[in-house]
DNA sequence: ACCATTTACATACATGGTGTATGTATGTTA
DNA sequence: TAACATACATACACCATGTATGTAAATGGT
């Protein structure tokens, strides 16, 4: 029985992967630690050693999912030069990433309830939210949203995107829900001038 | 031991009140049925008789809170004649009502996680959401939001309002968070023409 | 008015799930 | 190589929900 550092890391990673699947499929409440450790091939001892308790495990999973989405958004947004176009691309990238089952259930639905809204909010702020607020501030300096509070706008937009992602994910696969939502964003943010990324209308 | 119909209704109502307090203060997961029934002066039998299980009890509480907020929004919105002004008043009324602890914790945070997003969404649709969508459709007929999908806009706005309420509630009491959010709404929905309800700027 | 049935609970128990205390073998460090 | 820390395994305590069962009162039909 060898238990080197790398073995330990692999155990932790495997537990994280299995936990992520179970939290996604069954939700936090119905996800069983015993089932998770069994599927990961270890016992409860390993799980509690690495993550302290169920909430600690969940929090780690949340951070991982958030980081994934954040990278996606950053990468897509950086493909443009114009700040407003960056924002639009970022919003689209977020919606595309957030409709994934893991993001929906873990991040958007269970996250706030399990961790508490404040903790969840702080975690989100350190990832996606912060970039969103910076981008909106930048845009305001360029003349957009004259006189409106950037923090208020940031939270407004963030909430809108979260709920929209949940709605889009629930629509039939061939629906244009994501495109429709992007149209809403374009209309509200830019007064419907150009920038429509698709050919409609 | 008298157990008439009215006694039964009163028992159910008392349980609902106590449950609402406990769900608000401790959240769904940490709210204990035993503590609730003890505080209501009955046993677990009464609770399970009236509400089936913990989730059933919670769902009833959610419906009650939703109904309260819905009434508030409807009443305030109906104070205006102009459809856009009705929308604005409705949004403000929602924000003012949704910052209450019970609304935040039960409706906005725990609701989707406990009931599942789809169930929660359907319940919300039968209350506030439906009116919002109707109002937005009406406005579109009047020339607002040309070409945008009303369902998409409805969900976008709904999510924005929910998150904004949570944000506002968390700000220091003397902050202008609610007013700032209203400014955001006015700016995005109406391109910042008039309708500012306060004297700023 | 009386019987059958339903209602409105109380009580007791089965079950499952988390957390924690303890044990133990291995790796690591001085 | 001795001491300590790490990485788990095992066993158990402890709630908390849910369910089965019991029971007294209310209700409804005849």
Automatic annotation (TrEMBL), chains A, B:
Keyword hit for NADP: no
Pfam families noted in UniProt: TetR_C_41, TetR_N
DNA-binding segment(s): 32-51
InterPro entries: Homeodomain-like_sf, HTH-type_TetR-like_transc_reg, HTH_TetR, Rv0078-like_C
All residue ranges annotated as the HTH tetR-type domain in the record: 9-69
Keywords: DNA-binding, Transcription, Transcription regulation
Molecular function terms from GO: DNA-binding transcription factor activity; transcription cis-regulatory region binding
Domain of life where this protein originates: Bacteria
PROSITE patterns assigned to the protein according to its UniProt record, in alphabetical order: HTH_TETR_2 (PS50977)
Protein name: TetR/AcrR family transcriptional regulator
Lineage summary: Bacteria, Bacillati, Bacillota, Bacilli, Bacillales
């Amino acid at each position: 029985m060898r238990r080197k550092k790398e073995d330990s890391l692999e155990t932790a990673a495997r537990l994280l992967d299995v936990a992520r699947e179970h939290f996604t499929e069954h939700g936090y409440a119905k996800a069983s630690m015993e089932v998770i450790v069994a599927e990961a091939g270890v016992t409860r001892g390993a799980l509690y050693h690495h993550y302290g308790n169920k909430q600690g495990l969940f929090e780690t999973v949340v951070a991982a999912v958030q980081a994934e989405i954040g990278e996606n958004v950053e990468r897509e947004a950086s493909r443009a030069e114009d700040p407003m176009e960056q924002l639009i691309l970022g919003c689209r990238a977020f919606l595309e990433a957030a409709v994934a089952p893991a993001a929906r259930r873990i991040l958007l639905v269970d996250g706030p309830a399990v961790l508490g809204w404040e903790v969840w909010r702080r975690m989100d702020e350190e990832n996606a939210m912060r970039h969103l607020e910076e981008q909106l501030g930048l845009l305001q300096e360029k003349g957009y949203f004259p006189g409106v509070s950037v923090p208020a706008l940031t939270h407004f937009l963030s909430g809108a995107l979260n709920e929209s992602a949940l709605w889009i994910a629930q629509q039939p696969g061939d629906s244009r829900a994501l495109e429709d939502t992007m149209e809403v964003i374009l209309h509200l943010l830019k007064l419907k001038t150009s920038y429509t990324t698709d050919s409609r209308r």
